[in-house]
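From the methods appendix. Each design record in this collection lists the tokenized structure first, followed by the designed amino acid sequence. Records were kept in a plain field format so they could be parsed without special tools. The example shown here is representative of the layout used throughout.

RECORD:
FOLD TOKENS (64 positions):
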């Protein structure tokens, strides 16, 4: 009985949060346009960082 209640609550609570987000999101409508994206090279820096992390992960895997 207790397991059923826990399973039901674990299914219902995320749905309630999801529905609250949908309803709350509609109420916060902004008429101002989004700012234009500015390329500062941050995407390139992130790409290099991710590549170095993959290389480090592979080296760690190979050496162990």
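DESIGN:
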């Amino acid at each position: 009985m207790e397991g059923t209640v826990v399973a039901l609550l674990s299914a219902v609570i995320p749905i309630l949060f999801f529905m609250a987000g949908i309803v709350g999101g509609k109420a916060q409508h902004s008429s101002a346009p989004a700012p234009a994206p500015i390329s500062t090279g941050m995407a390139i820096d992130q790409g290099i960082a991710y590549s170095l992390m993959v290389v480090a992960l592979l080296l760690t895997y190979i050496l162990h």
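APPENDIX NOTE: The longest helix spans residues 2-27.
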